[in-house]
Amino acid sequence: MTTVRVAVGSGNPVKLAAAAAVLRAYFPEAEVAPQVVASGVPDQPFGDDETIAGARERARRAREATDADLGVGLEGGVVDGPDGMRTCAWCVVVHRDGREGVGGSLAMPLPDGVAALIRDGEELGHAMDRFANERGTKHGKGAVGILTAGRIDRQAAYEVLVTYAMAPFVTPSLFAR
């Protein structure tokens, strides 16, 4: 079996661990490595489209920088709507042949106080740190871990996104129809 080389477009240990857990479940010999790249979007993406664009750019740049078989991009963002602000997160997996898979979820409401800080220009992780009197939220349990009282942490939530984005690669015959 050929070893699959995977470049994850981030140095964030949570994103790397999530991608590694999923990719190694499919490909036990996978080599998964971080590749710090720019997302091409603001540090705090607004809306699903901007967040997907950031994930896609991370995946593409990481894969190209290392000539990996797969590039994985994970990006968290927020959506501000009439009912308040919610989180969003997206994963894009890019194959060297140009195929891609996209998976997203992690939509949950944010407290009004956090939303106000974000609207004033803070990134979600920093806003959660201030609001919940925490440190390093985005490199650990994340907003999702705080807001679910530890029931779901950021890595577990991101593993779902990576799994969704892998669908075209693990069931290709279904996507070829």
TrEMBL record:
Magnesium recorded as keyword: yes
Entry note: cofactor: Binds 1 divalent metal cation per subunit; can use either Mg(2+) or Mn(2+).
Cofactor field: Mg(2+); Mn(2+)
InterPro entries registered for this protein in UniProt: ITPase-like_fam, Non_canon_purine_NTPase, NTPase/PRRC1, YjjX_NTPase
Residues where substrate binds: 67-68
Gene Ontology terms: biological process: nucleotide metabolic process; thiamine metabolic process
Any one GO molecular-function label of the UniProt entry: nucleotide binding
EC numbers: 3.6.1.73
Binding-site positions, Mg(2+): 67
Domain of life: Bacteria
Broad enzyme group: hydrolase
Keyword Manganese recorded: yes
Catalysis: reaction(s): XTP + H2O = XDP + phosphate + H(+); ITP + H2O = IDP + phosphate + H(+)
Domain Non-canonical purine NTP phosphatase/PRRC1 as annotated: residue spans: 9-170
Record field: transmembrane: none
Keywords noted in UniProt: Hydrolase, Magnesium, Manganese, Metal-binding, Nucleotide metabolism, Nucleotide-binding
Function: Phosphatase that hydrolyzes non-canonical purine nucleotides such as XTP and ITP to their respective diphosphate derivatives. Probably excludes non-canonical purines from DNA/RNA precursor pool, thus preventing their incorporation into DNA/RNA and avoiding chromosomal lesions.
Subunit-level organization: Homodimer.
HAMAP family: Non_canon_purine_NTPase_YjjX (MF_00648)
NCBIfam families with a match to the protein in the record: inosine/xanthosine triphosphatase (TIGR00258)
Family: Belongs to the YjjX NTPase family.
Name this polypeptide is given: Probable inosine/xanthosine triphosphatase
Gene: yjjX
